[in-house]
Amino acid sequence: MSTALAALEEAYARRGAPPASSKGPTVNRTPVVGYVGADMPVELLTAAGIRALRLTGDPDSGSQLGDRYLGRGVDPMARSVLTRLLAGSFGDLDRIVVSHDCEASLRLFYALRELRRVEPGTGLPEVYLVDILHLPHRTTARYNRRRIGEFAARLEAWTGRPLDLAGAVAAHNERRRLLAAAAELRRAVPARLTGRQFLAVANAALSVDEHIALLERLLAEAGRLEEHAGRRVFLSGSDHDTAHVYEAVESEGYVIVGEDHSFGGPSPEGPVGAGGLDALAEHYHYSGPTAHRATVSERAAHAARAVRHCRAELFFAYSRTGDEAPAWDFPAQRAALDIPALLLERQDYGRADLTALRKEHPCAV
After folding, report:
1. Which of 200, 293, 268 lies closest to 43, judged by CA?
2. GO molecular-function annotation terms (predicted)?
3. In a 10 Å sphere around its CB, with 0-12 CB exposed, 13-18 middle and 19+ buried, how is residue 68 labelled?
4. CA distance 34 to 233
5. What is the pLDDT of residues 93-106, one digit of tens each?
6. For residue 344, what are the contacts with CB-CB under 8 A and spacing of at least 6?
7. pTM value?
8. DSSP element (H, E) containing 233
C-alpha cells in the first residue's frame, strides 16, 4: 500500500470540512477564500497568499435552504453548496469567489450577493464573480484579460500585498505536470489507480506545496500500487464533486480510467505560459471542451481522442437532473466512438441508476 495514496485519500475526505486556517483569531491567520467553478484562476489565489478551498456539495445532507433561494430547477450541486454555506459547513471564509463556468454557478453568485445584501444575518462574506468567456474571438480575449486584471487588483486590495504571480504559476504548473503523470497510472493496463482513487489524488484538500510533495511521493511509490483489472470506463458529462457515482460504478466491477469533468484533474490541462496576466488570461480562455461551453462537434472529437488515450472499453455519459447539457452531446459522441456507449440521464445528485448498465454491459465483479 502506498503511504502517499493513503495520505491523499485522507486529505480528500477532509475537503468539505473547514480548513485549520479558517479557525482561531484573525491576526496572522492565512486568509481563506472559498471558490466555485472550473474557470477559477487559482494561480491568483495562491499568488495572493490565500488558502483556496473549492466548495463542494453533499448529496446526503439535503438542500432545503438552497432549494428555497435558488429553486429546484437549478443544478442540485449548486443548491447543495448554497445550503452548506448558509449552514456554516465551511467555517469562517474571508471571501467567496464564483467563476461563471455554467448557468448554475452564475445563479449561485447572484443568490449569494443578494442574500448578503438583504439578509445580513446570514453571515455570508463578500462574494466576487470571475467572468471568463470562451468564444474564439479577439474581443473575448480582451474581455478576459480585463477580468483577470480586475481580479488580481481586487486580491491585492483584499490582502494589502503584491501578488507573487511567477511563483504561483510555477507551483501550479508543477502540480499539473505531476497530476498528468499520476493520471497515466490508471491509464496503464491494468490500471494502477481506480477512478475513485484518482478523484482523491486530484482533489485532496491541501495547499499547492503540500499537494506537490504528496504527488511526488505517490509517483515514487508507484510500484506499491495494486492492479485493477475491471472493465475500463470513460466517464463523461456532469461534474462530480463527491465520489458517490464513482463508487457506485466501480462497485459493479468497472474501473473508471478517464473523465471530462472539472473534478477529474487539472482544468484546463497544460501549463500556463510565460507572460504574467496575459498568459493566465489566455490559458483560461482556451480551457477544455466542457458540456456547458463547447460545441457538440468539439465534445465528440474530444471524447474520441480521450477514449483512445486511456484505452477505455465503454463510454459512460452521465447527466444529472438540472444539468441537461451533457445529454445533448451524447448522440454525436456515440457516433464518433468505436466502443459501446451508454447514457444515464436525469440522475439524482450523487446517485446513479445502473440498471441499464448492468443489463446492456454486464461486468463480473
Report:
1. 268
2. hydro-lyase activity
3. middle
4. 32
5. 999 999 999 999 99
6. 316, 317, 318, 319, 352, 353, 354, 356, 357
7. 0.94
8. strand 231-237
Nearest to 74 by CA among 106, 44, 96, 49: 106
Looking at 3.40.1390.30, 3.40.50.11900, 3.40.50.2300, 3.40.50.300, the CATH number of the domain 188-195+227-360 comes to: 3.40.50.11900
Q: Cell 475491471 identifies what position?
A: 230
What mean pLDDT, rounded, does the chain reach?
A: 92
Q: Which pLDDT does position 359 carry in this prediction?
A: 84
pLDDT for res 149: 98
Q: Which CATH architecture is the domain 13-159 placed in?
A: 3-Layer(aba) Sandwich (3.40)
CB 232 within 8 A of CB 191: yes
Cell of 337: 466512438
Q: Which residue has the cell 429546484?
A: 72
Please give the grid coordinates belonging to residue 128: 466576487
Sign of CA dihedral 161, 167, 171, 172: positive
Contact 299, 234 (CB under 8 A): no
Q: Where are the alpha helices (DSSP H) in 221-295?
A: 244-250, 276-285
